[in-house]
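quick q for whoever's on today - can somebody do inverse folding on this one?? i tried earlier but teh output was garbage lol. tokens:
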């Protein structure tokens, strides 16, 4: 019943629309974009945050005022350039203003204010005094892109500000890394209480960052702000929100509402160093690096091949990456980017890329992997002729290195050999004849003592066992 009723009203609207409705609702400018507040009583567009007095809007065409009777209802209109947009009005406490489907001037319409929807616009109409209903009224209406926009009008019985409360920044600023190469991160925060007129995002007070904002929820007017970070700027990031209040349509005065700001220091992770690449198989390589960063990092390894750069490996804390499936006879270049894992100690943007290392994958199969890995260790400097030279050459050139595991020829692995020379055991080599004699005697004595002790030990070894058994029993 109800749905058929509203369907009939809708049909009625469609039929009567060209004549009667154009008289009630103001025209929507068809050559503009976006959304706006329109006040027919003053025949003017209102800037958002304009302050108007309750005597500037009604639920009828107020013909006794300075504008002549034009048939347009002197409500406060919230308009969108999307002719099908549906808008909603909210009270200062963020509850929805009751909507009314009946005609303007119908006595059963809600009091003191009600909302009435038309295609592309919604009217805020007043029937009674606004005592107890003053404050910032918000209209949420989608623009031609379907994005909700919020327009604010301060409505008071006098033209003075009652509560000059500006927007507030939420305490949390979240960091979201979207892409490492090209760098795309975002810093997100919410602005509450009312949409900001101005939103400034700067680094070191000099560089301005671009941002986007979205009305997250109309009723409480939370504006979600996303600041795009596409450059590795280290420094002090500051977000400032503020509002301008337009005192009223006549005074042209602008009063700054109390603003809010938040700043945080953002760093850039240190780039990995000492990059090396070595062949570990006929079509596999190992890329290794070191990293001076103190906070935990993950690493992303990129490969450049045939002018194409792509991410080929992700490691968590490890500083090696095994890259498989390379093509024999082709050349590859690698670099690594460090990405900070721990944001509790502050936000670190991904590092610059490391130095590049290149390697050519030999076309012929190497005889053993260990020798070829030795050959490729300092592959950056390798010329094609050196790579193509047979692997048998290598052991004769550096036999000592080929003994070491292919992972890394660390200095600590080499040290034990020279270290043995200084060993205390071999230091008392220079013996005199007397000492030799003494030593022989001592040796005999030692043998005797050892034999004796051996006997004692053999006895004592059996004794405790008995004791133990006794204790157990
Ligand atoms: C805007 O509307 C006017 C009449 O209301 C019409 O003459 C004009 O062509 C329209 N312009 C566009 C861009 O639709
Ligand atoms: C829209 O049209 C009106 C009158 O038709 C004109 O005064 C106004 O400048 C136009 N606006 C834009 C943005 O073109
Ligand atoms: C006023 O609105 C009510 C509810 O929408 C409706 O039932 C009634 O017929 C309307 N009265 C007039 C005079 O339009
Ligand atoms: C919000 O304000 C309206 C109008 O003043 C009132 O009717 C409603 O009860 C209020 N809601 C809350 C949750 O305070
Ligand atoms: C912003 O508010 C929305 C909901 O109102 C919430 O889901 C989101 O997590 C908030 N974002 C931040 C950065 O606080
Ligand atoms: C914020 O930006 C606006 C213009 O976008 C500028 O007029 C205003 O001075 C800026 N405010 C601050 C605090 O930098
Ligand atoms: C726009 O806001 C209204 C509430 O005012 C909500 O119902 C609607 O889902 C929002 N639309 C979008 C696209 O966010
Ligand atoms: C910002 O200032 C800090 C400290 O002076 C400096 O280290 C940093 O490089 C600056 N950032 C930019 C992007 O200028
Ligand atoms: C790589 O790009 C450079 C310049 O962009 C071009 O001169 C070169 O021919 C390209 N090489 C390949 C293998 O596509
Ligand atoms: C981040 O680092 C801090 C201090 O170094 C440590 O207390 C915290 O547990 C770390 N958090 C994570 C998630 O690793």
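ok took a stab at it. sequence:
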């Amino acid at each position: 019943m109800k749905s058929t009723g509203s369907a009939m009203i809708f049909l009625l609207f469609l039929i009567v629309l060209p004549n009667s409705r154009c008289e009630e609702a103001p025209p929507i400018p068809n050559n503009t974009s976006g959304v706006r507040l329109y006040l027919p009583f003053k025949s003017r567009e209102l800037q958002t945050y304009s302050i108007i007095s309750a005597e500037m809007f009604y639920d009828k065409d107020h013909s006794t005022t300075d504008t002549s009777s034009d048939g347009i209802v002197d409500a406060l209109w919230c308009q969108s350039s999307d002719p099908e947009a549906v808008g909603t009005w909210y009270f200062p406490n963020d509850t929805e203003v009751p909507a009314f489907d009946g005609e303007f001037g119908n006595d059963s319409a809600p009091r003191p204010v009600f909302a009435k929807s038309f295609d592309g616009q919604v009217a805020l109409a007043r029937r009674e005094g606004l005592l107890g209903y003053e404050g910032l009224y918000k209209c949420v209406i989608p623009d031609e892109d379907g994005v909700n926009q919020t327009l604010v009008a301060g409505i008071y019985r006098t033209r003075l500000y009652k509560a000059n409360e500006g927007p507030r920044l939420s305490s949390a600023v979240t960091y979201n890394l979207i892409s490492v190469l090209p760098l795309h991160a975002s810093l997100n925060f919410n602005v509450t209480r009312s949409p900001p007129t101005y939103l400034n995002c700067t680094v070191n007070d000099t560089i301005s960052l671009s941002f986007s904002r979205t009305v997250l929820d109309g009723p409480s007017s939370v504006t979600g702000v996303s600041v795009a970070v596409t450059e590795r700027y280290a420094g002090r990031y500051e977000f400032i929100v503020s509002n301008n209040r337009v005192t009223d349509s006549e005074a042209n005065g602008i009063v700054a509402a109390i603003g809010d700001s938040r700043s945080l220091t953002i760093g850039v992770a240190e780039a990995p160093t000492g990059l090396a690449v070595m062949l570990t198989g006929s079509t596999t390589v190992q890329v290794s690096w070191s990293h001076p960063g103190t906070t935990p990092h993950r690493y992303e390894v990129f490969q450049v091949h045939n002018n194409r750069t792509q991410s080929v490996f992700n490691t968590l804390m490890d500083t090696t990456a095994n890259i498989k499936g390379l093509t024999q006879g082709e050349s590859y270049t690698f670099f690594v980017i460090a990405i900070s894992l721990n944001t509790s100690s502050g936000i670190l943007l991904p590092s610059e890329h490391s130095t590049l290392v290149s390697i050519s994958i030999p076309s012929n199969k190497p005889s053993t992997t260990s020798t070829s890995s030795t050959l490729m260790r300092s592959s950056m400097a390798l010329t094609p002729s050196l790579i193509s030279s047979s692997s048998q050459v290598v052991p004769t050139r550096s036999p000592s290195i080929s003994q070491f595991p292919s992972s890394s020829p660390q200095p600590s692995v080499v040290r034990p050999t020279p270290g043995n020379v200084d060993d205390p055991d071999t230091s008392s080599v220079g013996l005199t004849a007397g000492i030799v004699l003494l030593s022989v005697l001592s040796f005999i004595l030692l043998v005797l003592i050892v034999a004796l002790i051996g006997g004692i030990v053999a006895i004592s070894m059996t004794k405790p066992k008995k004791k133990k058994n006794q204790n157990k029993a």
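fwiw Confidence is low (pLDDT under 50) at residues 1-22, 366-438, 456-473. also Residues 112 and 127 are 5 Å apart (CA to CA). so keep that in mind when u check it
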